[in-house]
Write a structure and sequence with these properties.
With about 240 residues, the protein is mainly alpha-helical. The protein is about 75% helix and about 0% strand. InterPro entries: Gonadal (IPR010849).
Length: about 240
């Protein structure tokens, strides 16, 4: 029997080695990805637990009517949203927009009051000058004073109406900002945020908004890391 050489289709030792290395690299990469995902998930859970504790303290310090309007489920939901972090720039933009508009509206109010005060001063000066010019006609002074009173009364009425109209525009503008905040945060899923004019619900919404702003200004504690497993609760997630 003659010896038959190996078929060219048979794998050589070097091809086996190359395949083994490739498989090993693939497994190593998969293990690394799984490890990274686990680290990310555990860190995310720690952030939820941190925000949950902070929110619980906020609730304990809040007035009774706020406490009764915020459930444990609500602060748990809010803690998850805070841990994601996307809400902070959204709230920052909403708050900054409101602050800028409030400054503009406040300036309009101050400017109007200043202008009205100047108008009253001008009218009073005009009245004094007219009385001085008619000092030699004492019989005419009662009539002149009556005219002055009527003129001042008309000016005061016009100014009161103008101030009331501006105040109403300011309230409408601020109400519009509240609606914008309600709709924006409702879309994100922030608890308690729905479009409403209910004063108590709005009070709760504004308190939650204040908590988010306060937490956005805090850095996460250095102890918040995987090297400190004691930061995790025994049962997780909440």
């Amino acid at each position: 029997m003659s010896f038959q050489p190996a078929s060219s289709s048979s794998s050589s030792p070097s091809s086996y080695y190359s395949s083994d290395v490739s498989n090993s690299n693939y497994l190593t990469q998969n293990n690394s990805n799984l490890s990274d995902n686990l680290v990310d998930r555990e860190y995310f859970q720690q952030k939820i637990y941190y925000y949950l504790n902070e929110l619980r303290m906020f609730v304990q310090q809040a007035p009774f009517d706020i406490q009764t309007g915020i459930s444990e489920d609500m602060i748990t939901q809010l803690a998850h949203i805070l841990a994601e972090g996307k809400i902070f720039p959204t709230v920052s933009e909403l708050v900054n927009s409101q602050r800028v508009e409030e400054q503009i509206l406040h300036k309009q109010l101050i400017d109007l009051r200043s202008e009205q005060s100047a108008c009253r001063s001008t009218l009073r000066r005009k009245h004094r000058e007219e009385i001085s010019m008619n000092a030699s006609r004492p019989h005419h002074l009662p009539v002149l004073q009556k005219e002055h009173e009527q003129e001042m009364h008309r000016l005061m009425k016009n100014q009161t109406d103008a101030l009331r109209n501006l105040s109403l525009r300011i309230l409408d503008s601020l109400d519009g900002r509240v609606v914008e905040q309600q709709l924006t945060l409702e879309r994100i899923g922030v608890p308690a945020f729905i479009r409403t004019t209910n004063a108590q619900i709005i009070r709760i919404q504004m308190r939650i908004l204040d908590w988010i702003v306060r937490l956005s200004r805090r850095s996460l504690p250095q102890s918040l890391s995987l090297s400190n497993p004691e930061t995790m609760p025994p049962s997780w997630p909440p």
